[in-house]
Amino acid sequence: MSTNARRISRRVAGLIALAVLSILCPTLCSAQAPVVIEIELDHVVHPLSVEIVRAGFEQAAERGAEAVVIRLNTPGGLLSATEEIIQLIVGSKIPVVTWVGPRGGKAASAGFMILVAGDVAAMASGTNTGAAHPVALGGSEMDEIMKRKVENDTAARIRSIVDKRGRNVELAEEAVLNSRAFTEQEALESNLIDLIADDIEKLLAQLDGRTILRFDGEQAVLKTAGAVVEPYELSFRQRVLLPLIDPNLAFILLALGIVGLYVEVTNPGLIAPGVLGALSALVGAMALSLLPINWAGAGLLALGLACFVAEAFIVSGGLLSLAGAVAMVLGAVMLVDTDIPQLSISWGSAVAVTIPFAAITVFLMQLAVRSFRYKVSTGSEGMVGEIGVARTEVAGAGQVFVHGELWNATAAEPIEAGSRVRVLAVEGLKLIVEKVAGS
To answer: Which domain holds residue 405?
Structure first.
């Protein structure tokens, strides 16, 4: 073989090798790079938060993730939903890192309980946590015995979790019993958290090679160097419902939906009010169903609607409408059984929705009632009661002139031609008439 031929063959072989490496290298590199799933909880903790965390853990299991990072930025939330999230964290086979971020964020109340439940707890600079004292649902005052029971139960739950994680049990208990709060530096120095990291890249860099003690007592070494961070993507249902878990917006949608459905029922064939109304009502009801409902509040809403309907049938001088408005406002405020401001219907929203809803409902109902009371003026039924003139003698049969038309007619008693007659009934194309007295 000549020298040139050998050079050409070596170049071809080199090009082939480069092509193979260019194809295989990304695959090999991606296979070797650890995966970390990031779940964001930057809203009030509620049942949809539990669904998001559970789905994020499932994604982590499918991807064989090295760890799950739950980013917290929440003012608190429902205790029941918080407990479910904690159960998911302590039962996870994949290490869970809870991190308060970004800078300026906080993990208050329920967020504190989730933070200290993680295998690794971390906070960004300028964040705070704590103030986890339990409060009464519905904004009511608990009696002393019940208050003590709830406090002690929550404190015991925190002690059991924090003790297993090797953190400061006494200070964690103070956060529950005395609403104590901590900055990130105070939390680190007090052994409530494990480290401070300002962003997720720095967090993963500090986690690499760290040995952690799992909740079941086993040890694990985190390998997060060069990890690929995959944010959990919300499902379509979660993207729709998450902003709608604001009870004020859900209540407005529910009210608009009821009005739209009523307009469609009273005016069949309009289609748009019915479709939009049904959609609004379903979305509003679905959002409210995710929250703890006070059935006394729901009953007051139903009572208010009944008063609006009754106003159209009973002359009450507006008393029924006033009673209905008061019942609806009180029912709206009481509807969600919690005193967390972000999960409650405000007085302003309740009044702003109730007044126009009451006016529209009473007005539409009055129109419907009046339409039923009106005498029918079209078709054969519209002939009943009309006055006409007998064109011929009407004995067993004859002809009368009614509504500008000549009709065959019959009467129980003979009627002379030219007499005024009243239509009693319509049978097919024949009228049953009687003589008008004094004609």
So the answer is: 380-435
